[in-house]
Design brief:
3 strands; alpha+beta; Alpha-Beta Plaits; 4 helices; about 170 residues
Length: about 170
């Protein structure tokens, strides 16, 4: 190698995301409304609430079973979803109609609703049949935290505790 050979150097290391301020938990609540009320109290007393966060901890998945799912209900659910989708697509095509705009818009929306309901019902029944009785119930799923932590930037955490009157 020659003396004048260029050297390859690595670029300076920088974090990909600017570092967030260090935060400390000053309270834990069982429900969101209580955490929200604490932040509101801080705001009412002039505390810089842009330095506060409510963090949900210990997420749990809750699936509430809403009923049995048989062929008629599967068809009905599929028809409802298909009708909404079909009506929206028909409405969008109707917006582009330049020949008798109002009647064309309305007719395309109605035809889309009907066609979508038929296709949706067929698809709902087909999916239900392909599951072979493995999931013959309807449900609604939600994620929810068990607790809510009130997190405050480390350098103002003591002020937040004092402002809320929790420093006894």
């Amino acid at each position: 190698m020659s003396e004048n050979a260029s050297r390859v150097t690595a670029p300076p290391t920088r974090p990909a995301v600017p570092s967030a301020p260090s935060r400390r938990s000053i309270a834990s609540f069982r429900n969101y409304a209580d955490a929200e009320q604490a932040v509101d109290a801080l705001s009412d007393r002039g505390f810089p609430v842009h330095r506060v966060a409510i963090v949900g901890r210990d997420l749990e998945l809750v699936e509430q079973v809403t009923g049995r799912l048989d062929y008629p209900r599967a068809a009905l659910r599929g028809a409802a979803g298909g009708a909404v989708t079909g009506a929206l697509i028909g409405w969008l095509f109707g917006l582009l109609s330049w020949i008798i705009p109002v009647i064309g818009w309305l007719l395309l929306m109605v035809y889309g609703l009907i066609f979508g309901a038929i296709v949706g019902a067929l698809f709902g029944v087909l999916v239900h049949a392909l599951q072979g009785g493995r999931r013959d119930f309807a449900s609604a799923t939600a994620m929810r935290p068990r607790t809510y932590e009130l997190m405050v930037d480390e350098d103002v955490a003591a002020d937040a505790v004092r402002t809320l009157g929790w420093d006894h």
